[in-house]
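Pair request: fold both.
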Amino acid sequence: VEGAWAEDGKGESIWDQYGHQGHVYKNQTADVACDSYHKTEYDVYLLRGLRPKIYKFSISWPRIFADGTKDSLNPQGVSYYNKLIDSLLDSNIEPMVTLFHWDLPQTLQDLGGWQNESIISAFAEYASFCFDTFGDRVKFWITFHEPWVISYAGYGTGQHPPGIVDPGIASYQVAHVILKAHALAWHVYNSHYRPKQHGKVGIVLNSDWAEPKNPRSVEDIRAAERYLNFMLGWFAHPIFVNGDYPDVLKSQIQHMNQQCSSQIAKLPTFTEEEKRLVNGTADFFGLSHYTSRLISASANHTCIPSYDNIGGFSPQVDPSWPQTAAPWIYVVPWGLRRLLQFVSKDYTGSRIPIYIAENGAPVDDGSDFINDTMRMDYYRLYINEVLKAVKLDAVDVQMYVARSLIDGFEGAAGYSQRFGLHHVNFDDANRQRTPKESAYFFSTVIENNGFPDKFLEEHLPKHVV
């Protein structure tokens, strides 16, 4: 949303370069985007209209450190985030800050990016600076937003920068490095900042719900279990269970390598010291969720490296599920409740809370952008499933964050998918914002902290939405 891609000392990010090279829908770029860099006060004004308890946003690493290191500190970038944080607090809105939401400084990518282990200390230095600079006012920190997407789309399919297609080797190598970088940043906060700042640090993991296509088929049930472990357990198990990858993930990769004439996947190993470093490094379970998949066991084993082939599963959808403007998002509300049950059972229990840190659906650029009835229905149905999980299943959900305040630059999809509660006119030099019907709907959900006299006729616990 920020724009100002090269203003006031900001360095180039991998998404800046990716857009400038023409890899994004209709050659669109984030050069100006929503121009939020110059519209801080107005965006906070829009937030005040919704009256939320919290606002989740990300810091752009190259806006703070232009080349990714402290030697390139950019005071004007620091001032921008200070202004945003102070404006939020003046409006009684808690800032929730993500340190890394995919926009790596290009200079660090030139050194190998997340494939080079030296980036672990660089990230820890950047995180420590942010904790030191903003932590007196920020009490909720996210180290990485959706590391699965970074590993899968950036290094597996090549759909995101740096555009590397290596699902069997690079994807797992990058995830390994990110997990260690996250853990080190958590320990930096825990040792040096928590005693005075008393904040919370976690990570946001994205996951579909995996429903066995045939619930009476043992093969499909096991395939669905593998799907969840290849998507969520890949990161959640090391952090929330025992510092290591799930046995299901390790055994499946070993099985596929044995079935093939050459190694098609390589899962790195943690040392015992690294297991201790990674295990327990989260004060909450950040969950990003949008949709579900029907999973069946792969009928044909192939040795061509791909996410599905390595995992031995075949994801599908039910033709009755409504599709949104994003081709990968189908409306399956009950999947969120089942995923919350799974997370609570396998990872959190009553030990740490679950924060739903991202949920929503887009409309397409050409639709009636004000009367976004489908999005309102999506929110209503999905939030109601959260309500059921809390009230009927005793799942400890303490936060729900809607995506998003305003339309923005959506990666490779550019501006074709509109996730915002407020429409942004990207053809207007002033980037005019207009509230959609979903903004009014969501403001009533916030006001009532749930649904008044509908659905289960109960409200979410205080301060969830």
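--- second member of the pair ---
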Amino acid sequence: MERSTPPPAVSAAAHRRGLFADNEPFNTGWLAADSGHEIYFEECGKPNGKPCVILHGGPGGAINPTMRRFFDPAKWRMALFDQRGCGKSRPNASLENNTTWSLIEDIERLREHLGIERWCVFGGSWGSTLALAYAIKHPERVESLVLRGVFLLTERELAWFYQDGACMLFPDAWQRFCAPIPQAERGDMIGAYHKRLTHPDRRVQAEAAAAWSQWEGDTISIRGPEARPSKFNEIDFAIAFARIECHFFANHGFFPEEGWILNKAAALKDIPGWIVQGRFDVVTPMEAAWKLKSAWPGARFEVVWDAGHASTEPGIVDALVRATDQAFSV
């Protein structure tokens, strides 16, 4: 079923769903992984509720209390974790054995640790990439998928945002993004940033991380700078975020071939899915979500006309909350 919400009106906005009430974790801890990584996780909601796992974006982001609020805490048992090198996971900002495949192993490690057979998998932006890759590798463990701001991690998407595309819509922000990079290196912005974000001098890392994070923050929402995550202003967070994100992108997501997710999309055919996409998403433009829907016709597809990329935009919140309510009945 395809659904496209109409352009916003006062009456429509008044009836939009909001986030559920905040809720505190009932279980937290660290899970030992390989290569010295320790993965921080938490469980929220109803201990014997329907299980779900919530995947944060980036790569390089971290979980936050708002992510718990897309699911009804009276019904769902929510599991969240900071991916390798992110948030409270240890060691911070580590790139060692930090790949898409090691993160998929961590999801399975967490599922087994929590004694869960199958669960709903929820993710936006990079979280949607990881959710799709996990579902393709372990379809028997996925009861449903709820995705937002679909990102397939293709060369076309990376070039759009980091080389030639989004810069035409945000020339002022692009100028700030280019500032730390000499003119001679600007033909490969991801490569130029990767060199600086892996530099042994933390001061070099910090300068590059601040500019990398600001570029994403400047483009994340149609609401402008007010939607820029405050954590981007914290240098430790910015370094981990930028280092890990650029590490994944410089390595093409560690996928064995271009377009791997779409090439393997047949594995999703029996999984119920919900795709929510902001019409004016500049970070992960709608083309990727449209291609995914074409390759996965059973998924429900909703376009939010007055939204960009951020998960907290009112129309995105409304669509995701309705999707998780529907997923509860699967």
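Observation on the second member. The two ends are 16 Å apart (CA to CA).
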